[in-house]
């Protein structure tokens, strides 16, 4: 019913994926040239998908376009909330509170605004590393120091929480906020109830704010279960939950996210500081509601396809790059691969693969804050044929580098 093998040409759409990689990955402009033409790159970097949006969502968007007017739009009835509520009940056995629901163009803008609202410049935000880069950038935006608590890892590529280090950082009198990632990006961990409970106890002990970024919560391997932090801390007033249909349904460019803020004063300040003064994009609202109402079948098919992609990559690396360490992610569509034993002398892995393999990817401490040296992150939300081409190119580049 859904064709995840379809190859879609995204050029000339102003896509970050195709047109913005120089600035994002390499902090350079159009003057930076590579041995490959832009259209020759295999793009396995930024976290959006190479898959078509679900036809059910496109159908609802087209219906809204046929209404012909796109004036100022807000959320003035509970239709959207009821769709979001049902999705949460069906998928997480958790019912969000309607009065807590706020909107943001994205979780990144929400983190920027919440960091600004909750912290003074002499206070600190705690993150686990490796970390999604914008956790650090959100702190830097308000001139706030970011404390880093490195995750532990084993030889199989599995990651674990370091509770002692995490609590020591929480105990810092200047620590005010925890940016929590559940499921975790980039490692793909789905935190267990036990892990979440221990983190919740530490956060409560030091009376910290916890902002739980759960944008990847729908992108689970089959058989995995996401537990919202809101279920673990049902009565904690300093919890903020961020969710969105954007990652799940490949709608990131429509800029629409859910931010659930329990504390009334903080919630009202968030709304008051909203740069869009309560307005939302009418197409974005339509697409988000359609995703929760009608996207279920596509979502389940997507998960099965992604599971097969991960199995394919794991098998390929085992056969062709055996020194690479990859534990299949429990969530996300992002593979976190340790190449430190494969290319120990290569400092800049994204530059190496761009120049020598024509593959765009992210990795290393510079892009993932810390505790990421020797790692690359591969986006696997694309047709398997593209992944295979990328892996073959990477294998050949590694062979040439290691047989010099």
How would you describe this protein?
With 404 residues, the protein is of the alpha/beta class. 40% of the residues lie in helices and 15% in strands. It contains 16 helices and 15 strands. The chain has helices at residues 16-19, 21-26, 55-65, 79-92, 107-118, 133-141, 163-170, 193-205, 229-232, 246-249, 264-272, 282-294, 296-320, 349-356, 365-368, 384-402, and strands spanning 42-43, 101-104, 124-129, 145-150, 152-153, 159-160, 175-181, 209-213, 239-243, 257-261, 325-326, 334-338, 359-360, 362-363, 375-379. It has a 7-stranded mixed sheet, with helices on both faces. A 4-stranded antiparallel sheet has the order 11-12-15-14. Helix 3 (55-65) runs antiparallel to helix 12, helix 4 packs parallel to helix 12 and helix 13 runs parallel beside helix 16. The protein is globular and about 65 Å long. 44% of the residues are buried. The model has no long low-confidence stretch (mean pLDDT 97).
Count the E strands: 15
Largest sheet: 7 strands, mixed
Cα-to-Cα separation, first versus last residue: 48 Å
Number of helices: 16
Question: Major sheet: order of its strands?
Answer: 2-10-9-8-7-3-4
Round the Cα radius of gyration to an integer and report it.
Answer: 21 Å
Strand content: 5-15%
Please identify the structural class as seen in this structure. Answer: alpha/beta
Low-confidence stretches: none
